[in-house]
Amino acid sequence: MAHKHGTGREGIQFANTEDKQEFSKYPTKAGRRSLSRSISQSSTDSYSSAASYTDSSDDETSPRDKTQVNSHGSIDFCVKNIKQAEFGRREIEIAEQDMSALISLRKRAQGEKPLAGAKIVGCTHITAQTAVLIETLVALGAQCRWTACNIYSTQNEVAAALAETGVPVFAWKGESEDDFWWCIDRCVNTEGWQANMILDDGGDLTHWVYKKYPSVFKKVRGIVEESVTGVHRLYQLSKAGRLCVPAMNVNDSVTKQKFDNLYCCRESILDGLKRTTDIMFGGKQVVVCGYGEVGKGCCTALKALGAIVCITEIDPICALQACMDGFRVVKLSEVIRQMDVVITCTGNKNVVTREQLDRMKNGCIVCNMGHSNTEIDVASLRSPELTWERVRSQVDHIIWPDGKRVVLLAEGRLLNLSCSTVPTFVLSITATTQALALIELFNAPEGRYKQDVYLLPKKMDEYVASLHLPNFDAHLTELTDEQAKYMGLNKNGPFKPNYYRY
Amino acid sequence: MAHKHGTGREGIQFANTEDKQEFSKYPTKAGRRSLSRSISQSSTDSYSSAASYTDSSDDETSPRDKTQVNSHGSIDFCVKNIKQAEFGRREIEIAEQDMSALISLRKRAQGEKPLAGAKIVGCTHITAQTAVLIETLVALGAQCRWTACNIYSTQNEVAAALAETGVPVFAWKGESEDDFWWCIDRCVNTEGWQANMILDDGGDLTHWVYKKYPSVFKKVRGIVEESVTGVHRLYQLSKAGRLCVPAMNVNDSVTKQKFDNLYCCRESILDGLKRTTDIMFGGKQVVVCGYGEVGKGCCTALKALGAIVCITEIDPICALQACMDGFRVVKLSEVIRQMDVVITCTGNKNVVTREQLDRMKNGCIVCNMGHSNTEIDVASLRSPELTWERVRSQVDHIIWPDGKRVVLLAEGRLLNLSCSTVPTFVLSITATTQALALIELFNAPEGRYKQDVYLLPKKMDEYVASLHLPNFDAHLTELTDEQAKYMGLNKNGPFKPNYYRY
Amino acid sequence: MAHKHGTGREGIQFANTEDKQEFSKYPTKAGRRSLSRSISQSSTDSYSSAASYTDSSDDETSPRDKTQVNSHGSIDFCVKNIKQAEFGRREIEIAEQDMSALISLRKRAQGEKPLAGAKIVGCTHITAQTAVLIETLVALGAQCRWTACNIYSTQNEVAAALAETGVPVFAWKGESEDDFWWCIDRCVNTEGWQANMILDDGGDLTHWVYKKYPSVFKKVRGIVEESVTGVHRLYQLSKAGRLCVPAMNVNDSVTKQKFDNLYCCRESILDGLKRTTDIMFGGKQVVVCGYGEVGKGCCTALKALGAIVCITEIDPICALQACMDGFRVVKLSEVIRQMDVVITCTGNKNVVTREQLDRMKNGCIVCNMGHSNTEIDVASLRSPELTWERVRSQVDHIIWPDGKRVVLLAEGRLLNLSCSTVPTFVLSITATTQALALIELFNAPEGRYKQDVYLLPKKMDEYVASLHLPNFDAHLTELTDEQAKYMGLNKNGPFKPNYYRY
Amino acid sequence: MAHKHGTGREGIQFANTEDKQEFSKYPTKAGRRSLSRSISQSSTDSYSSAASYTDSSDDETSPRDKTQVNSHGSIDFCVKNIKQAEFGRREIEIAEQDMSALISLRKRAQGEKPLAGAKIVGCTHITAQTAVLIETLVALGAQCRWTACNIYSTQNEVAAALAETGVPVFAWKGESEDDFWWCIDRCVNTEGWQANMILDDGGDLTHWVYKKYPSVFKKVRGIVEESVTGVHRLYQLSKAGRLCVPAMNVNDSVTKQKFDNLYCCRESILDGLKRTTDIMFGGKQVVVCGYGEVGKGCCTALKALGAIVCITEIDPICALQACMDGFRVVKLSEVIRQMDVVITCTGNKNVVTREQLDRMKNGCIVCNMGHSNTEIDVASLRSPELTWERVRSQVDHIIWPDGKRVVLLAEGRLLNLSCSTVPTFVLSITATTQALALIELFNAPEGRYKQDVYLLPKKMDEYVASLHLPNFDAHLTELTDEQAKYMGLNKNGPFKPNYYRY
To answer: One cellular component GO annotation, for this chain's record (chains A, B, C, D) (predicted)?
Structure first.
């Protein structure tokens, strides 16, 4: 979810103020990916026995204070409870079923072990899906050490399962800020082992290595970074001439973008609204603010289910697309009184203002699919004349003095982060992209990549897509020699110029 | 959900065996409606504070053994805990927001009190939505006594709220079979009050009166029945010459049918699948068995979200519709190996056989939207060579000896009964239809209705629809005198012949 | 097209004034079917060589004054030019390709010749598709004599081809009123041959037999009537106790209705608008008046192509359906200023008034898909202050004094009659229905049908559908014995109760 | 139509063989735009009185041999018949109604006359829509001389109308090759007038100036080129270091691309198939080869109308999109036997081979929406064992020895070029883009543009879009100062980075 944010870690400060400055100018136009099944557990508690096992754990001792040993005798890890390994294993196995692209990658590349010799230090969400990635990297020959990029998102039982198989994992759900940096440090700073590849999600690991162990970069062949935030930091380093190894921006690959935004939002907008409000879509008047990929996904789904959708836009090109796709383009203020649902997808701030909230009709639902928690001016609702009533988890009724209620979801944070789930298939695409980027950087001949930020080569983007086609029983056509010549293409791709819009 | 069943009350026996016989021949082609938010609480536990209040109640005393008094001093009720009344009131108020048709009916009819003198005994699910109906009947002049038609579906806090305002309610969640009939009896058999109208959902109340208090029918002006099962019983009584009062079949009104089947399934199929499996719909191969209203609703939604849908049908007319609507019509056995999801919507039995289950691919999801739990041959899966693994509530993995897993939802029972919710709006249509049927029967001049089963007059069906149009800010056009004359229509309807197909 | 009219034969009077009176009260709510490729030739002139051959024929002699002989020496026919037979044959062969249901019927029933002994007199449009029907009847054993139900719709070359093979046909394009009745008379009144079955489209043939040769009815086993008008006449005769043989109303069979209205309009609305105006649909604001089957078909297609559609309705049930399907329900006057296209589908009159025409914006397109030419008040536009400019065939610009132009299509007559074509497949369904109705009536045991008007038995309706499924490579599922028993159904149908809404 | 070709001018040779060589390597992956209402007149003959006026003109004298004077006394033009001016004027006026963006541009820019001093020589199709462009340029201050880029596409009456108002036009329908170059020469080579801007469509005018009047480039401030072919030529010149003025590639602007491909094909695929075959779309099995913008447009429309669509692809990314959009991805050979319609949209050659044509079923329709006439191997069908039968204009039946017929449309040339029309709105977008490019190049400060090929600045692309929003009554939202700052955007745009995919 390139456009999504919500680390819940606002309190964490960079040690070096200068650095913080460097990044603080960035409008955090999006955030690091943080969606996974475990994160939205609140909505699925009743379904997941593994999750409830985790939740019911009332061991209050900090993992840092416990001594744990896995069944192989290793103590080089730090997780909540190594005994949860078996439960975690089952979650990983279930995830594997929907991540056949990675399994297939294991098979294809296993003979040659393209990551033999790679020592990867990773900092990502630690979920069943990430575990499938890590175990794929290991199967391809890599040694891995891992930590969490988010203090809340770790699936403890999955971390346990990884630790049990011998991957040094340092992560648990509910870390303190101090824990967070301690875990990263334990990952990087270990006797007799030095990373030569970095896989990062958000840039904190990279940041830590820069600050504490700059010499590590002498051996590092490259950084793979997934999040918008982390990518932004890398570009800033590059601009400042301080990037000392090649870096791969996997966030902007075509496949990832389309799945994270268009396709994923098409599905999650319905799910998020249903789980929170049980709304009937048919005949509802909905305004979607913003007709980018996220907005397009939302509009498609809502229209298909019988909602009457109009959009707001600042960009005339997107507005013209909306017209052609059958949506009225309006100003929010013109329609606000009639709307049953207001959804923001702009990446901007204060798209829904207090004045507009004042004019909404009774029962209007307001939520955000776009970015962080800036789009709806939620702060303006925290005023004495309004009553907040929490009616369900993630659902507040804001009550005006005249009794009018506005239904605010997830307090204006990302709806699909908070109230729906992300299909494993989407995570599979991201994980496969990361694996390929690691292989590419690790094996690239000297000189192919300089100290700069690169996009994944289109051919590898195409390869990621091709690995996922069997899920759909899709059969690709191959160019004949004659056709390839006629088109001026290599039969194995890439098939499109870089600027192709898809 | 006229087509849906699942009372969870298979153990309940009719006292009179003969009678049981009478009904047992009926294939229970559908069942009594039992969907409401509270019923599917398992899927929304984490959202509903009221519900969790109820759930956390660990008072194990039977309500029959407790003495409770409401704040007006009345003891003529029996609920779980009268102290929950305030919570129930809030649930009712929230429901009122989406049931403006009933509120509007209250206002329009309040002056004339069309139910003044009516003494209604009711037996329905007891939920916030039913409460809005009951309080509407009271506002229109009726006296009501109420009991539950299902031993599991009562929202205890709502029952408490009703009891608190003075409606004698006899119902709680988790009644025994004996409790069930005791409650009905307490409703009917009370000193100094005799019902003159019956509102039934499933026919059990009607049955009880027939058995125990047949003299009551001397005063009863009519029965309003909502469920397929109850309607079927009435038609059988009528055929047998034993129906001794007019009865109104509200199950088959156009508006109710379309909402319960086509529109509601269009929304709930997505919801049910997401909440249980987090499936991504895009590109999934789905076979829908049956292209009636339920199947049409499912197909529309799934296709719209990017699934590739084919259907099976026995009826060539429905099959031809499927073709024209863009769905391949296949035999299940031809496609079963390729399918990602199999959904039954036929009302028939053994539509998915063990042999077909054997041939499904790994990970195939199987569920039922149609009728009862007969459509999938679940019994055949309870054999020793197969392993069942419960992975979430309502989700079982059936594991074949070779490791293949089939994902069975709700053990083959109705998916949207078990795993999704019904929008209040749908319930509003049913409740309004019931209210109008009661008004019609109670006020009909002598002789208009004989001892027979009647459909709601089309004009009243149209009136129900018109009461719900303001929810959509829909503006009806009125015929001019000239136009009405040209069409040979009354300006106030009815606008269509009875056989019109909509 | 049950809802469509436009015979262009307003001048034709019934001989008997009394009779005329009888029918004149009828609001001609629909008309006789008159769509076929030949009728909309104006739109396809350039494509059809056969058609242009016909058009270029400048032989001005009346067929009645010519002596023509077919190659078998027969002179028992009257067509424009027997020499066109070969061209007509090719048109028939092309039509056969899309009418495989009739071809299949020929094969299935040919052994037993179910129409052996049938002497059918027919009065329908004479087109390639009708020819396939007639030749099917002959193949099944019938003798046929045929005439045209419309003075403009005959494809001369097809009539020639039929005459050449020995079917006595009396019809040509551009008959006078006198010719029309002369042809009917020649069909009925012939030495040594007396009809025992009547196939009528509009009721004129039936009328003529009633007036002139009532004794014919002694031998007639039944009438099959297709048009709304003809069916209405039959019901009136029946009510008046004057219907002296059984009659079959094939207009109201499910299959025919769905194809003639919903599916056919879904396709023809786009075609009709494109051929006349080259309009781009994307983003156009369209109001559709009426949300019956015709309106539903139009709305579906237009929305799918990116138009923004709202509807007007008088019936709250249809209005509620429109809401749930995602269309705003408005009054025409509220939106008329913003609309790019106005389409009427009501069956009513003066749905679009002069006042509304006055308020339309420049360039607004107005057309009728509903009924006759009454829906738009075209007469009101024929006033001196407005200028009419014919810009294309079927397209008029009405110019207001201030320069505003309204684009009126087909002068308010049926758009898809005038400006688009009807797929052969739709005609195939009607023709198959007619054939089966003839077989049923001719073979029914004495007493099954009385002197009344009957609907096609549902089982035969299902059979018509099943004959068309192979076109879609659709595979029906068969009930098992166990399933049939469970459902209480015969394995061969009928599968639904009569009131089923599909 | 960036992807479309069909100049009908294969015979025309470049004088200089070397040059020809230079371009002949180019696979003419697309062609110059040549769609407009007049071009597809064959399909609309019966509607357009103006067109028929032109057609009926049987004056066989070459315009070059006639002396004509317009009403102002000028003889500086050469058209078919100056007397047709009045008819042409009406066509122009009708076109103006749908080109309000240009009219609006006239109004906005008229005060400042941004093209005052511009002397534009143009070579484009000469149609009513082009006339609106030319007259807009004049209104903005330019002097124009014009000629046709295609020997068949000139609307004679429009050329006359332009000549009558004083624009020197040299063009008529049906020029010989010699006429073609003579007209270009007369445009460029005139006493006392030297062009300082070039507007070209296909590159022939540019070529001619290069060859004959290279000195003209000393004064020329820029070239605006619209076609793929012309743009390709310019890039080649630039690569070769021979481009001596700035050039603007308007073909690749976002707005133009989306409309020419996605949106326009969405509409024209239905239109083209209907006008040629009267096919019913519902239930048809269709395979679309290629899922680029053209394929996406075709698939969307066909699926929406009830066709069952599958696609073929060589590019795994596009294939994955197809999966997510609900289309099965297959190899053509796997499905060819079942298909009712085969549509090519690849830009490649021999996508449909003779072997596949041999395996198609009877009645299968084959057509090309992609590129030139290479996609279907039509040549392979010209073999003695197959019979060709022309059944309508643009429709051939290819008949196999066993009687099987394949329906080939437009002999494999572009379906929407040959058999449907292009909405004026699409042409308006192109024309507006051309006008803005001319203004930009003419007014750019010295040095902004070098001797290179430029894309239209995104801001102007956005401006083109914004000029077309009023057609849809679309209301853009404006950024607040705070929001613009937060996003780091200028309030007036551009709003997206160059690589944004829309």
So the answer is: cytosol
Task: Give residue-wise pLDDT tens across range C56-69.
Answer: 445 678 999 999 99
> How would you list the strands of the sheet with B197-200, edge to edge?
B169-170, B143-148, B119-124, B197-200, B222-225, B247-249, B453-455
Q: Do A350 and D257 touch (CB under 8 A)?
A: no
- The whole-angstrom separation of Cα C202 and Cα C354 is 32
- CA-nearest residue to A314 within chain D is D477
**CA B316, B319, B325, B331 torsion-angle sign:** negative
Percentage of the residues of chain A whose pLDDT score is greater than 70:
88
The minimal CB distance from D426 to the residues C280, C363, C420 is found for: C280
Contact B282 D328 (CB under 8 A): no
Buried (b) or exposed (e) across B32-68, using 16+ Cβ within 10 A? Answer: bbbbbbbbbbebbbbbbbbbeebeeeeeeeebeeeeb
- Residue C18 marked ligand-binding: no
Test the C interface: residue of A300, A308, A318 with most C CBs within 10 Å: A308
Question: Rounded to the nearest 10 degrees, how much is the dihedral formed by the CA atoms of A227, A228, A232, A238?
Answer: 50
Average confidence score pLDDT of chain C: 87
With a CB cutoff of 8 Å and minimum separation 6, the contacts of D379 are none
Cα–Cα distance, B79 to B160 (Å, whole number):
6
Percent pLDDT > 70 in chain B is 88
Helices marked H in C287-423: 293-304, 316-324, 332-335, 354-359, 415-418
Q: In the predicted model, what is the mean pLDDT of chain B?
A: 87
ipTM passes above 0.90: no
Lowest-confidence segment of B105-119, B247-261, B335-349, D412-426 by average pLDDT = D412-426
Judge whether residue D32 has pLDDT over 80. Answer: no
Nearest chain C residue to A326, by CA: C306
The whole-number pLDDT of residue A166 equals 96
| Contacts for D331-338: CB closer than 8 Å, 24+ residues apart | D331/A475, D331/A476, D331/A477, D332/A477, D332/D287, D332/D289, D332/D356, D333/D359, D334/A475, D335/D285, D335/D287, D335/D310, D336/D287, D336/D360, D337/D361, D338/C473, D338/D285
Kindly determine whether residue A278 and residue B471, on different chains, have CB atoms separated by under 8 Å.
Answer: no
Half-sphere exposure of B460 (CA within 13 A, CB side): 21
D-chain CB neighbours of A483 within 8 Å are 348-351
Interface test with D, best of C100, C303, C392 (most D CBs within 10 A): C392
Across the interface, whether the CB atoms of A283 and C307 are under 8 A apart is answered no
Contact call for A478 and D314, based on CB within 8 A: yes
Structure-block tokens of residue C279: 């309009």
Q: pTM of the predicted model, to two decimals? A: 0.89
Token pair of D441, please?
């190049």
Chains with at least 3 CB pairs less than 8 angstroms from chain C: A, B, D
Closest in C306, C307, C328 to A308, CB measured: C328
Joined together, the tokens standing for residue B141 give 């002049």
Residue D182 pLDDT exceeds 50: yes
- Which one has a higher pLDDT value, D54 or B467? B467
Residue C125 clears pLDDT 70, i.e. is over it: yes
3-state DSSP assignment of residue D32: coil
Q: Is A256 marked as a binding-site residue? A: yes
Higher pLDDT, D272 or C59: D272
Reported as type and span, the H/E element at residue B453 is strand B453-455
Residue from the list D280, D301, D473 with its beta carbon closest to the beta carbon of C305:
D301
Other chains touching D, judged by 3 or more CB pairs under 8 Å: A, B, C
Interface test with B, best of A42, A46, A426 (most B CBs within 10 A): A46
Which structural domains are found in chain D, ordered by start?
Answer: 31-220 (3.40.50.1480), 263-418 (3.40.50.720)
- Binding-site residue ranges of B: 127, 201, 226, 256, 260, 292-297, 313, 416
